[in-house]
Amino acid sequence: MLRWLRGFVLPTAACQDAEPSTRYETLFQVLDRNGDGVVDIGELQEGLKNLGIPLGQDAEEKIFTTGDVNKDGKLDFEEFMKYLKDHEKKMKLAFKSLDKNNDGKIEASEIVQSLQTLGLTISEKQAELILQSIDADGTMTVDWTEWRDYFLFNPATDIEEIIRFWKHSTGIDIGDSLTIPDEFTEDEKKSGQWWRQLLAGGIAGAVSRTSTAPLDRLKIMMQVHGSKSDKMNIFGGFRQMVKEGGIRSLWRGNGTNVIKIAPETAVKFWAYEQYKKLLTEEGQKVGTFERFISGSMAGATAQTFIYPMEVMKTRLAVGKTGQYSGIYNCAKKILKHEGVGAFYKGYVPNLLGIIPYAGIDLAVYELLKSYWLDNFAKDSVNPGVVVLLGCGALSSTCGQLASYPLALVRTRMQAQAMLEGSPQLNMVGLFRRIISKEGIPGLYRGITPNFMKVLPAQN
């Protein structure tokens, strides 16, 4: 985009003294494809796309909504010029906030320093990769002209939105945890963009969980019944489930697993925002530590809210064909025979498992991604889908290794009322029983199918 603006549409822009109106008029003529003196949203989107500057529908609509002062659904030249002038002023302020030594150029060290003041940490190598995406003359510094032309059609209004743009467009790690809800700007919250992103994530989660449901049910079966037979393996477990209930039984309990996505995501997002406010003073930047604590607490809050559904998912997965006719029937029988307390069996080990999993998952992910960027990235700050999936899978695996014994004990506590002759033990009692009868390996029963679903579950 930058080279196109400077080399084709804005041949005079290379000169710092070029008249802004001349540059704006050239741009307007290019976008006004039918030459009627106004640009509608379709022309703006098509024009930017054809010129190799596709920003995405939301960004283009934001430009149009902000610039269309008289709300007639079109941008005339005066509105177009006013929008770009106002936008340049905002970009000038952002440029000056990054130019720490006031020499008219942004260097890698200044990007690192500026992000550190916002509580975000990146390496100088990563900062250099950001500069390369903006730098038009190969000097490894960015002057005002390069900065202005690069962000000319980016609707970011301040340095925080620019940093968020770097995060989403380049994939660079700026300290946000993958295990916590993403943060949204005030404009995204007001426009409804936040719930569209959450909805898209929920749909992706439903597809992901459904595709890995057979492995998830096999894991639960091995966790609960592994102590009865050391011979249960992946092939034997699948064969046993199909023999008992047919192919459809492989997805038993998945309905509950999918249904709980919406309330879990909504509560997690709401709680995350509330904990951030509690941990930071008004106007204070949210750092990595605050994000991690807020994310862990939000996860615990969401789990508290939807935990009864976790218990029902386990009961449905372990139950035999015909034992429960559905989610409602399962809940009714648990309440009738065991009382309300049964819906929170295994809650303590579940809660304890959130912290080591979230912490290790985040730490390993950041370590792997930073290592790749520092040692293998050449001309891009985007590691690519394969690298990101690999980092996510390995970090999730490490997190699961640390928290899996707690997850296994949680599952057995959820299901032990269904096992005939099984004593109703608490968390400590179950740990002791498993170690005495099965040894340390007993704490990791079912971990193989759990690992098998890690990569396809990355979404």
Describe this structure as you would to a colleague:
The chain is an all-alpha fold and 459 residues long. It is built from 22 helices and 4 strands. It has helices at 2-9, 20-31, 41-50, 57-67, 77-98, 108-117, 124-134, 144-150, 159-170, 186-191, 193-211, 213-225, 234-245, 254-259, 261-279, 288-318, 327-338, 347-375, 385-415, 427-438, 447-452, 454-457; strands spanning 38-39, 75-76, 105-106, 142-143.
The SSE string, one letter per element, is HHEHHEHEHHEHHHHHHHHHHHHHHH
General form: elongated
How many individual helices? 22
Number of extended strands? 4
Rg over CA atoms: 27 Å
Query: Can you summarize the main beta sheet?
Result: 2 strands, antiparallel
On the 0 to 100 scale, the average pLDDT is: 77
Classify the beta-strand content into a percent band: under 5%
Low confidence ranges: 1-18, 173-182
**Helical fraction:** 55-70%
Structural class: mainly alpha
Give the distance, in angstroms, between the N- and C-terminal Cα atoms: 29 Å
**Main sheet: strand order:** 1-2
